[in-house]
Amino acid sequence: MKRLVLVILICLSFSFLYAQNAVSLKNEGNKALSAQQYGIALLKYEGALKVWGNKPTDNAMIFSMGTCAYRLNDMKKSLKYFDMAIAAGYELDMSYQYRACIMKAQNNTDGYCTTLKDGLAKVPKSKALKESLAKYYYSEGSNHYHKGSDILKNTNEKLHAGKYSSTDKALKDDNAKAREEFNQAVKLLQLSLELVPNDENAKTIIGNCQLKLKAMI
């Protein structure tokens, strides 16, 4: 019986020491983060997380770990910690913003767009997420508009040079491609305006698309 009590006391002592060590490492990480020593801060935080034990998760520390990893350009590790913060519902607006920046840094366009949409579903009033997604839609819509304009310009040049006649299938095919680009541009730019209604540039491009579509009929 005495031996069992001794074993329990030893286990409790170790648990207490681990808990104390975790708090100490976390505090050292906070100090390093305040000094912008991101590598040291992340090392201390990760050490704390290893010996954290059964205490409630410190989501603020995990968010800081994501921030440090991002500053160190370790996008894989940063994504891991911000995903943990998002799963815990911690600082969702900023966590999704960081996640979107990580996707952008990794040239993951689909991931970037999906992250912004997911973020807005959770934080619908986020101005930063709205503006970022609107900017994405605007950029994509503008690209389609310029592609359509280039196709149309090239087609008209061929028509005036006598390389196309008004009845050529190639002319009709090129017009169809241009029309598709303009329609896609309008669709994306309207999505942009749903998020940022006062974007005059988006309105102007939509107007230009509609004029060119009418002229092609």
State the gist of this model.
This protein is mostly helical and 217 residues long. The chain contains nine helices and no strands. Helices cover 82% and strands 0% of the residues.
Explain how this protein is built.
Helix content is 82%, strand content 0%. The protein contains nine helices and no strands. It has helices spanning 2-34, 38-50, 59-71, 75-87, 92-105, 109-122, 127-160, 169-195, 200-216. Mean pLDDT is 89; it is low at 1-19.
Mean pLDDT: 89
Strand content: under 5%
Low-pLDDT runs of 5+ residues are 1-19
Multimerization state: single chain
Q: What is the string of helix and strand elements?
A: HHHHHHHHH
Shape: elongated
Query: How many beta-strand segments?
Result: 0
DSSP helical segment count: 9
C-alpha Rg (nearest Å) = 28 Å
Classify the helix fraction into a percent range: over 70%
Distance between the termini: 95 Å
Largest sheet: none
**Structure classification:** mainly alpha
